[in-house]
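S2.1 Query sequence (DUF1311 domain-containing protein)
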Amino acid sequence: MIHRLAHTVLIPGILAFLVIGAAAEEADQEPEVDCENAVAQVEINYCAGEDLAKADATLNALWPEVVAKAKAFDADQGTIYADRGVPSSFEALRTAQRAWIDFRDRQCEYEAYEYFGGTMQPVAGVICQTRLTEERNAYFREILSGSN
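Output structure tokens follow.
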């Protein structure tokens, strides 16, 4: 009876525990992918995600600086916005940024339809999001440099 229990429950249970533990440990490690030479779809997807994460991190780093510039501009204007019943520069910026995020996501969803149903559809959307985010980053840099 104990021998049968060991073969039917204990040994498979121990093996499952070891496999799950090894998979969990492996999942905690960053995969080693050469994004310059990515060929497999899983590598391309990973690298596209990394590119978007970098572009998004830059956007998030620039945002507080752009907000500060808009708020400083608003402070220089005094009460003119309130007197005229219009949004401040900062409020307009915030509204525009929220609309831009929605635009970016919808535009990239549309662009990815070129590959509808294929393995490239998701990554095409991510590549588009990266491109538009990098364009937004360039625009924010222009604002901060005073050339806009």
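The chain is about 80% helix and 0% strand. The chain has two domains: 1-30, 33-145.
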